[in-house]
């Protein structure tokens, strides 16, 4: 039987520290994933009160929305900017996707650049849309948001 004369404890325990370190990193990773799943679930729950389908937007056709912008959701201008939902394109369904666009009319004096804006309406919660300018005439500016939804 072979018995070492002397055991180097530091060398003997090195692999154990490595396994403990890997275990703790795995535990941290699992905790972070749990938090992330909770956050995403909460956002999806909140989104259920927001227009997110053709039928939802169609129910709000002709209504006005207050538009906010910026990182903190400040109003875009010192004057409240109202956009009216004026049109929806006919939805196209292709397999498991639904495609449509919504068009808004806004004041000529307050142009909005292409970007993400927060919308608010008395009948909906706040929600965000990516808008892009669609055109203008002498009395108004027009904007659209395009949707490609997985159904």
Automatic annotation (TrEMBL):
<protein>
    <recommendedName>
        <fullName>DUF6916 domain-containing protein</fullName>
    </recommendedName>
</protein>
<dbReference type="Pfam" id="PF21880">
    <property type="entry name" value="DUF6916"/>
</dbReference>
<keyword id="KW-0812">Transmembrane</keyword>
<keyword id="KW-0472">Membrane</keyword>
<feature type="transmembrane region" description="Helical">
    <location>
        <begin position="20"/>
        <end position="40"/>
    </location>
</feature>
<dbReference type="InterPro" id="IPR054209">
    <property type="entry name" value="DUF6916"/>
</dbReference>
<feature type="domain" description="DUF6916">
    <location>
        <begin position="53"/>
        <end position="147"/>
    </location>
</feature>
<keyword id="KW-1133">Transmembrane helix</keyword>
């Amino acid at each position: 039987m072979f018995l070492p004369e002397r055991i180097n404890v530091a060398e003997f325990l090195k692999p154990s520290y490595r396994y403990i370190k890997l275990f703790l990193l795995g535990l941290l990773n699992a905790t972070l994933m749990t938090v992330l799943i909770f956050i995403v679930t909460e956002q999806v729950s909140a989104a259920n009160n927001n227009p997110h389908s053709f039928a939802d937007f169609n129910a709000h056709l002709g209504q006005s929305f207050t538009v906010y912008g910026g990182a903190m959701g400040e109003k875009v201008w010192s004057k409240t900017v109202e956009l009216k939902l004026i049109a929806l394109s006919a939805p196209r369904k292709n397999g498991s996707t639904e495609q449509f666009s919504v068009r808004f009319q806004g004041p000529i004096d307050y142009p909005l650049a292409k970007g993400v804006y927060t919308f608010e309406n008395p009948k909906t919660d706040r929600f965000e849309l990516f808008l892009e300018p669609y055109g203008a005439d002498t009395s108004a500016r027009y904007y659209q948001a395009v949707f490609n939804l997985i159904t």
